[in-house]
Amino acid sequence: MKNLLLGNIITYKLYLYYDIYLRNFYKKKTGFYSQWGEDKYIDEFFKYKSGGFYFDIGAFHPIKYSNTCLLHKKGWKGVNIDANKTSIDLFNIARPKDLNICAAISDNNSNIDFFIDHKLAPINTLDKSMQKKMSSVFFKNMKIQKVKTQTLKDLDKNLFLLNKTDFLNIDVEGFDYKVLKQINLKESKIKLASIETHYPDGAKNNDSEAIFNYLDDNKYEIYKRIGPTTLFKKK
After folding, report:
1. Contact between residue 234 and residue 190 where contact means Cβ atoms under 8 Å apart
2. 43 in helix, strand or coil?
3. Residue range 53-93, pLDDT digits in tens
4. 187: which residues sit within 8 A by CB, 6+ positions away?
5. Residue numbers in the chain where pLDDT is lower than 50
């Protein structure tokens, strides 16, 4: 039924409103929104910061599994980027004052496959190895869409928005390091960064060591590890 509604131009937008205001309404009652409880620690870290700025790459959903929803509710604004148009349509409804961008981010410009489990799946990925690893559980009715990747500088030539960022969230299902290494962390004002360094089973992902080394070289240290996510704070 969900796929039918999402596939119909008339019912598509109605389903988006349903997904935000009814289907995920229960999330509002818990006080936290992240998949693994990351936002509890993010909120704790920024408890004295009001009106901050977040930059969320692989944002997925404005409420469900969101590491920035709680900050948004507290008056923060920011940038939300996702390769999935449906995700950005959701953000345009729920966070109209944010800058919401539909883009596939990598470290180069190329036409590659975007592996889609379904339109509202958190596991959609540009990474073929990630798709294969998750194929025993997900991607049973997979669709493949060709997308053109962009770099962060393509979107923000002078990196103005990144330079004013307090909280950075990267969750791009296997392309995390390709995104992270484009950011000049030594000159940034990013105080806390959330990045997936592990698989849900606890094993390190393919770029885990590169991520740890890059952040360590740029004077960041581990603040908290929650599930597959590691939070890094500026030293």
Report:
1. yes
2. helix
3. 999 999 999 999 999 999 999 999 999 999 999 999 999 99
4. 163
5. 1, 4
| Alpha carbon 70 to its chain's center | 14
- DSSP alpha helix (H) spans, the chain: 2-6, 12-18, 26-30, 38-45, 69-73, 85-94, 128-134, 152-155, 160-163, 176-180, 208-217
Beta bridge partners of 111: 148
pTM of the entire predicted model? 0.91
Identify the pLDDT of residue 2.
Answer: 54
pLDDT at residue 232 in the model: 98
Burial class of residue 201 (count of CB atoms within 10 Å of its CB; 0-12, 13-18, 19+): exposed
**C-beta of residue 55 within 8 angstroms of C-beta of residue 79:** yes
Residue with tokens 């349509």: 89
The pLDDT score that the predictor gives to residue 30 is 64
One-letter amino acid of 70: L
Going from N- to C-terminal start, the domains of the chain cover 2-234
Q: Which CATH superfamily is domain 2-234 in?
A: Vaccinia Virus protein VP39 (3.40.50.150)
Q: Give pLDDT, residue 108.
A: 94
**Could you identify the residue written with the tokens 């596991």?**
123
Residues 6+ apart with CB under 8 A from 62: 20, 69, 72, 80, 90, 91, 93, 94, 95
pLDDT for 211 equals 98
pLDDT of the residue at 3: 57
SS3 assignment, position 142: coil
Structure tokens at 223: 């603040």
Q: How far apart are CA 52 and CA 42, in angstroms?
A: 12
